Amino acid sequence: MKYVLSLAFALCSLPVLAAKVAIVIDDIGYHQIDYKLLDLPYELTFAVIPHTPHSHAVAKAAYQKRRDVILHMPMESARRADLSKNALKVTMNRSQIEQKLQAAFADVPYAIGVNNHMGSYFTEQADVMDWTLGYIAKRQLFFLDSKTTARSQAGIYAQKHQMPLLTRQIFLDNDRSYQALDKQFKLMIKLAKQHQSAIAIGHPYPETYAYLKKNLASLTTQGLEVVKLSALLPADYPVTTAAQTADVPLSLPEQHPVQLAHLSKTQNSAIPSPKTDMTEPVFVPAIEEPAAIIAMYSQQWEIPELLNPLTLAEIKPTAVFIPKHWILSKPAITPVRSVPFYQLGSSF
Questions:
Q1: Which stretch of DSSP H or E encloses residue 209?
Q2: Which of 102, 115, 156, 180 is most buried, by CB atoms within 10 Å?
Q3: What is the pLDDT of residues 219-229, one digit of tens each?
Q4: C-alpha span between 145 and 117 (Å, rounded)
Q5: pLDDT above 70 covers what percent of the chain?
Q6: Are strands 170-171 and 165-167 parallel, antiparallel or unpaired?
Q7: Which of 112, 124, 134 is nearest to 22 (CA)?
Q8: Whole-model pTM?
Q9: CA quadruple 331, 332, 333, 337: dihedral sign
Q10: Domains in the chain, start-ordered, CATH in brackets?
């Protein structure tokens, strides 16, 4: 009995590891509020759309504050809603896709990974996803599947190219009301506790910023830790920036000392935010028509309940690294010719 009690006491004395939550802010590059999100003293990850008015400046500021930066690459959606001349499209060949990605990394050289902006049609197609992930793997970066379609091919080709793959579990702000944000935030907490980690995606909306500013501090008391997206990669995976793997490697600016969430306001203000006056260069927007930009931020997705990523069964985190050589079976090499997702009513 004495030994049983001793064992029980020893087990109770073991440290409890905090569940990890990575929160990715998509669509960075258009708005001044991007800088406000950057000032939050938490390890948020910034997904930057290339060739937008603030893409290079915000990515640089995030890198200097030691935040993770990933490339938020526009890809063709089922609704053909993305009008970007910089987007990846299913009609492109391998060379065109690689050129688009190369130009995007040149604008956001601080990126350590990539996720898809829209892309519900593009990510379902075999050949273009093979070429896309092949180039990302060549640049020694990882891919975060935003899961805008249940038929994404990312898993197959991440395995083929021996690259890390992460998967989004929660969209925080498809509905920007406080009640909806709170519901999704609590679902994120639930999934993180069940699986020891969760990845959520939000956007630079004023409502999202206000909610995160008010509620992120509560995660610590609930046994959760806000971490960089890269913290969910294998411990032995070497995190690399796109600048380091360019044909001509680029030099990056020095990073500020580590900032932690518990720093006081006085300490936190020691690292100034970048000046954002209009003297900074203005890049060609990724979405050319103002009406399309407004639509992108205001539309409410109308997705059949069965196909809505928010209502699918819990998406379990994907294995992020495959150490053995992967050989695709013959059916997987054959391009997917399924019914286009837009015919099923997707809005992504």
A1: helix 206-215
A2: 115
A3: 999 999 999 99
A4: 10
A5: 68
A6: unpaired
A7: 112
A8: 0.73
A9: positive
A10: 18-344 (3.20.20.370)
